[in-house]
Amino acid sequence: MDLFSLPRLGVVVPPENPTAEPEFNHLLGTGLNVYTARFPVTPGTGLRRMLETYNEVLPDTLGDFGGMRLDATVVACSASHYLLGPEGDRALCEELSVRVRHPVRSSTQAVLAACEALGIGRLTLVSPYEPWLTDVSRAYWERAGLAVDGVVPVPAGRTPAGTDQYDPYAVPLGRIRERVRAHLGGRRTPDGSALMFTGTGMATLAALRELAREEPGRVLLTSNLASAWWARRATGARGGPVHPLLRRLDAGIRRAA
Q1: Phi, psi (5° rounding) for residue 185?
Q2: How far is Cα 55 from Cα 83, in angstroms, rounded to an integer?
Q3: Phi, psi at residue 33, to the nearest 5°?
Q4: Nearest of 200, 242, 249, 246 to residue 223 by alpha carbon
Q5: Do residue 54 and residue 142 come from a single domain?
Q6: For the segment 210-224, what is each residue's pLDDT rounded down to a tens digit?
Q7: Is residue 254 situated within a structural domain?
Q8: Gene3D superfamilies of this UniProt entry (predicted)?
Q9: With b meaning 16 or more CB within 10 Å and e meaning fewer, what string describes 115-133?
Q10: Measuring CA to CA, which residue among 123, 128, 117 is closest to residue 138?
């Protein structure tokens, strides 16, 4: 297939996110061409205000693609869309889709679509966020009709004062592995539930590969994995090999259908 005849996916990411583009490219393989725009830097702004700013400037950031034809766009920033709640999130995505004349979805809406396709009604959240933002995330999923069975906090490290330090972009693989395994305690995941890794900035592919080997039937979701699945569906992408985790998710959805 001609490289430039492939469907085109736009991805909007926070300026410091080092994870989204590499994970999208690994997950989607050669079936889609991925193009990115980044939210503006907001120096001296607290986290909540920064996330609010992302929602405010999202229409302009989508405009940074100019006149390039896109077949779909993913807004790869879960945290800003948690603040909107599921209703506001859906309304904003629908408004933007009309404006740019192609489907636009947030990573949070992509997760909800994947849960619906899988028949998932319960989540265990694996969260790299500060506690207040984890609470906002939990409230989002619960308002969307999903029960949250528990939360596995995954801090990036410890401060000199001995408190947890939260930075989704700096969480090491070993800490993800340690926290998740300690929470699961060898238990199998109940039917109708998923282990959901929140956010687009925490690198999760290696951890998910290990967890998938340990329990083949466990439903594993991340913001980027669900977004990649949605992007293939929205663009009608058919060609090219995709990542084993995306094939695994596709197989689970086929079984649930």
Answers
A1: 55, 30
A2: 9
A3: -95, 130
A4: 200
A5: no
A6: 999 988 889 999 999
A7: no
A8: 3.40.50.12500
A9: bebbebebbbbbbbbbeeb
A10: 123
